[in-house]
Amino acid sequence: MKKVLLAVFAFISLTGLAFGQVPANVGVSTVTGIPITASSGNVAAATATATLAANADARRTSYICGFAATAGGATAAATVNLTVTNVITGTMTYNYGAQAGAGIPTAPLVVQFSPCIPATGPSTTIVVSMPSLGTGNTNASVNAWGFQR
Q: Which residues span the domain enclosing 48?
């Protein structure tokens, strides 16, 4: 009987340690508003822009919780400044580049904000914009997600 109790105790202890490695909020949505998303769609050698819409209700503010930028390569390697504008912290700038070689995938840039960042005020859009990666770049996109409250 002691061996069985000892085995059960050991199992429970190890299980507790395993769960202790996972943050408490994993898999739990902390968004308390209307979810919103935006996408530039696929663009070729042009600016990719995702705009999180403003709400017509002057009492609601948009928040950005993250964005992702993806691209294929270009004829020549290029680096651009991707920006997030109209956020309370001011314009945020990220460097992103395309590899030399049209069609060669570039590693995605995925940024998650925790906590989510509000727009500069109610009824204001939040814009994520990536300039053209140059000649030969046939695939680029920007996606953003957040909520309005």
A: 33-148
Give the model confidence (pLDDT) of 110-145 as tens digits.
999 999 999 999 999 999 999 999 999 999 999 999
The pTM score is: 0.78
How many Å apart are CA 62 and CA 64, to the nearest integer? Answer: 7
Quote the Cα angle for 133-52-81, to 5°.
25
**For the chain, what's the residue count?**
149
Q: What are phi and psi of 18, to 5 degrees?
A: -65, -45
CATH, residue 50: 2.60.120
- Domain count along the chain: 1
DSSP string, 11-59: HHHHHHHHHTTS-TTTT-----SEEEEEE---BSSS-EEEEEPPPSSTT
Residues 136 and 74: beta-carbon distance below 8 Å: yes
Domain presence at residue 22: no
Determine how many CB atoms are found less than 10 A away from the CB of residue 27.
7
Asked if the structure places residue 1 within a domain, the reply is: no
